[in-house]
Amino acid sequence: MLLDGKKISDEVKAELAVEVNKLISSGLRAPHLAAILVGNDGASETYVSSKVKACEQIGFGSTLVRLPADVSEERLLAEIDAINNNDEIDGLIVQLPLPKHINEQKVTDHVVPEKDVDGFHPVNVGKLVLGLPTFVSATPKGIMELLKRYNIETSGKHCVVLGRSNIVGTPMANLLSRNSNPGNCTVTLCHSRTKNLAEFTRSADILVAALGKAEFVTADMVKDGVVVIDVGITRVDDVNNPRGYVLKGDVAFDEVEPKSSFITPVPGGVGRMTIAALLQNTLQARLNSLQTQLIS
Amino acid sequence: MLLDGKKISDEVKAELAVEVNKLISSGLRAPHLAAILVGNDGASETYVSSKVKACEQIGFGSTLVRLPADVSEERLLAEIDAINNNDEIDGLIVQLPLPKHINEQKVTDHVVPEKDVDGFHPVNVGKLVLGLPTFVSATPKGIMELLKRYNIETSGKHCVVLGRSNIVGTPMANLLSRNSNPGNCTVTLCHSRTKNLAEFTRSADILVAALGKAEFVTADMVKDGVVVIDVGITRVDDVNNPRGYVLKGDVAFDEVEPKSSFITPVPGGVGRMTIAALLQNTLQARLNSLQTQLIS
């Protein structure tokens, strides 16, 4: 069965639009997301414009700050400061990757945790691991939402995560290990140094593929009934496609799908949920700041 | 072969004593650790006094703040503030567990990250997960040191961690998954909801037992040549012992040892390393503050 990221993300967005209306009819402003885009990498342009468009769809405010590829780190940090201090903006994302002359960690650390709706700041990463309320980074949060809305049983299941990135693999492993629902999985985190990878993947009840290698997971690597979450999204050249490429996941969908009980398509799976989760975090940031105003 | 925590922790402490002498001969003060002990739980008394004694052994300064079991949260937070603001103190630990009327998370969050040598503050937990320099909490850090000093190969090995606590199991899983040495393990994190636990433990090249159940891991649960790290330390009643109890690890040592390539004893294994690691963190805190003074 398809885990339909498009359908579920549309549901989430409809729910968020209702929340926006509630705020506005109470005389309060809508949530507002700011994005900083440095340079004009094709994929980054696409991601940022999807996010801005999604904001517009559901009535969120949005600001896009464009900076040239040769912008100084100092100037970028100053832009972040301005947004950190702007009470009309609830959430701030800096689209990654950044040019090599800029220290990404320094930039990530510079966004105040209260507006860090990407969940990249160390304090937010720590809260995720500790099970405290925080902004869970968008891709893992979107995957958790998908598992939840399809009522997929995770407790006691063996979940194998492929890829240990800071933004997907590692937080997924931490989230699914926790005593929560979804959660309570026995999690194995695999990566480039893993030996006998297929032995691990074949024992997986739930397989999260987040290694960024097109069609890496083949049918012989999974067991019957597996739940497959495909986080990969690689542009593969294709002369027959008017864009010159097609998008491929980390899973060879056509051959793995028949063995699976649930599987996310690419596109229309995890990517859609990522944007929905970012919007959920932005609403949360808005509600948090309203609560802070009430208390103080 | 025994992973001798006593021997290695003595080595570490001797190295730290050398660093203390270097500081003093440069006209600088020694590192100083403060501990807050609330109430008088027997095990907590023992742990805190071991830590204070270890400080004295190597020339660190130490302060023990004792508060009654019925101390208010407000008063405890005020004591933390005083130490946070005291330039003569580098590291602060609040011995856990705390009485039920006190919010442990609030207390942990109140220690400034720069003095949080237990590594419990969310920002330090986040840095650990992200692989950034930080105070790694003492037990996981001590275990990493032990693996390192015995030159145990970890890269590509399957490490099974039993127990998902915030202070041992979860940080161990994160540390051993990272691209570092020790590290680069394929890690499976098991816990109370894990099904077919013995299947996981039998596939482990490295087994970290941190679930707090005396002699839980038996010989039939491990494979030949396994490396065993036993974090458990449970008091088991024993009328034949003058203290009325004996200390037991999570591993049935007598039967598992013959199958293992390396194994930590209890006591004399991980516990000793925990204290050594706490002292290393305290030295680091001292050096960090000196560096900050130099820069500013």
Describe the SSE topology:
The structure is a homodimer of 296-residue chains.
Chain A: H1 5-25, E1 32-38, H2 42-58, E2 61-67, H3 73-84, E3 91-94, H4 104-110, H5 122-130, H6 138-149, E4 158-162, H7 169-177, E5 186-190, H8 197-202, E6 206-209, E7 226-230, E8 234-237, E9 245-248, H9 253-256, E10 260-263, H10 270-295
Parallel strand pairs in A: 1-2, 1-3, 4-5, 4-6, 6-7, 7-10
Antiparallel strand pairs in A: 8-9
Helix pairs in contact in A: 1-10, 2-10, 6-10
Q: Which word captures the global form of chain A?
A: globular
CATH architecture of the largest domain in chain A: 3-Layer(aba) Sandwich
The number of strands of chain A is 10
- Number of structural units classed as domains of chain A: 2
Low-confidence spans of chain A: none
| Multimerization state | homodimer
Largest interface: A-B, 36 and 36 residues
Determine the N-to-C terminus distance of chain A.
49 Å
Q: Strand order, biggest sheet of chain A?
A: 5-4-6-7-10
What is the average per-residue confidence, as pLDDT of chain A, rounded to a whole number?
A: 97
Helical content of chain A stands at 40-55%
Structural class of chain A: alpha/beta
Enter the CATH topology name of the largest domain in chain A. Answer: Rossmann fold
The fourth-level CATH homologous superfamily of the largest domain in chain A is: NAD(P)-binding Rossmann-like Domain
Highest CATH level, the class of the largest domain in chain A = Alpha Beta
